Amino acid sequence: MTVEQTSQAYGKRADEYIDVVGTMADTSPIDRDRIGAWARDHSAGQILDVGCGPGQWTNWLHQQGIDVIGVDPTPEFLDRARRDYPDARFVAGRAEALDFAGLSGILAWFSLIHTPPHEVPAILARFAGCLEPGGGLLLGFFEGPELVPFDHKIITAYYWPVDELSRVVSEAGFTVTGRFARGEPPQRRQGVITAIRCP
């Protein structure tokens, strides 16, 4: 599927999505601790929250004193984010077309789960190009034993084996610094990769 198809699918169900998983009350303390610690480690400059959706993580990081911008291609999400979090910054944009330089960090929290796997390497290379040397990447994804699609409630998504996605991250110009996974059936396993841009 294309970025436009994914954006349209989320746009049609934006209010429903926000009601179910679109606020900080819906997030895990484990995730808040991990993302908060990562952001503080890379807070010397600007951080992008790529695929920020309705903006809850962008706003939360902003409240922690982080210089952060939320980026998303879905107009309905951006409208809601700007309304709910007027003090945070949000811009329209797509992961594969980011036009930034010298960033301290990129948070891509489950924002590439719908991206066809063959397109992921180029997006990660784009991320590397936007970061300063030593800049951080925090990537959230659905972890599974095989790289296969599954029927997500919004639109098709993909499971990634953590070893395979770590390799793709490394080949895009990063050094992987951490790999985590949690969750047991019937829940989907969630994976996290942290990395820094190579010099």
Automatic annotation (TrEMBL):
Database matches in Gene3D superfamilies: Vaccinia Virus protein VP39 (3.40.50.150)
Example of a GO biological process term: methylation
Molecular function via GO: methyltransferase activity
Keyword Ribosomal protein: no
Organism: Lentzea alba
Keywords from the UniProt entry: Methyltransferase, Transferase
Residue span(s) of domain Methyltransferase: 47-135
Record-linked InterPro entries: Methyltransf_25, SAM-dependent_MTases_sf
Name of the protein this chain belongs to: Class I SAM-dependent methyltransferase
Domain of life according to the entry: Bacteria
Pfam families in the cross-refs: Methyltransf_25 (PF13649)
Signal peptide start-end: none
Keyword ATP-binding part of the UniProt annotation: no
CDD domains named in the record: AdoMet_MTases
